[in-house]
Amino acid sequence: MQAIRSGIRALRSSSSGSFLNVVSSSSISASAKVGIIGGARVYSQTAPAYSPNSLEKHEVTTRVLDLLRSIPFIDPSKVSATADFKKDLQLDMLDSVEVIMAAEEEFALDIPDNDAQKIATTAHLIDYVTGHPQAK
Q1: CA distances, 108 to each of 53, 82, 100 (Å)
Q2: Mind listing the pLDDT tens digit for each residue in 52-72?
Q3: Which position has the higher pLDDT, 92 or 40?
Q4: Using DSSP, how many helices (H) and how many strands (E) does the chain show?
Q5: Helix axes 93-107, 2-14, angle to 10 degrees
Q6: What is the value of pTM for the model shown?
Q7: Mean pLDDT value across residues 76-99
Q8: Nearest-CA neighbor of 107 among 95, 125, 80, 93?
Q9: Is 66 an annotated catalytic residue?
Q10: Where are the alpha helices (DSSP H) in 15-92?
Q11: Looking at residues 94-108, what average pLDDT do you find?
Q12: What kind and span of H or E run contains 35?
């Protein structure tokens, strides 16, 4: 999986047509300052530091659902808080890796491969991000 993620990152850095250029104002926290540089989201240094209760589950749920709906290869009508990546959203392994990487960028965190392989539903992703101490 690490090789796939590295390959996707290399492709993203060489192309400007990445789906990550799509930024929904409803998916960005009002206190975070975000910009797009070279097709990737960049978080400003003035964004607030982590505090123990900085992300509530309902905020994470909204941002994850908005993120999934913004990805071109996912049917927005099938996105729900309990959707299975493979069964409901028809994501293959490569698509799932893209979703995990998009979530890493959205929440400014790193998801280790062994954890990423366990995330198979929207609910798993929401729970993982909600419980991650560095999620922004």
Answers
A1: 16, 23, 12
A2: 546 788 999 999 999 999 999
A3: 92
A4: 5, 2
A5: 70
A6: 0.63
A7: 94
A8: 125
A9: no
A10: 57-70
A11: 93
A12: strand 34-37
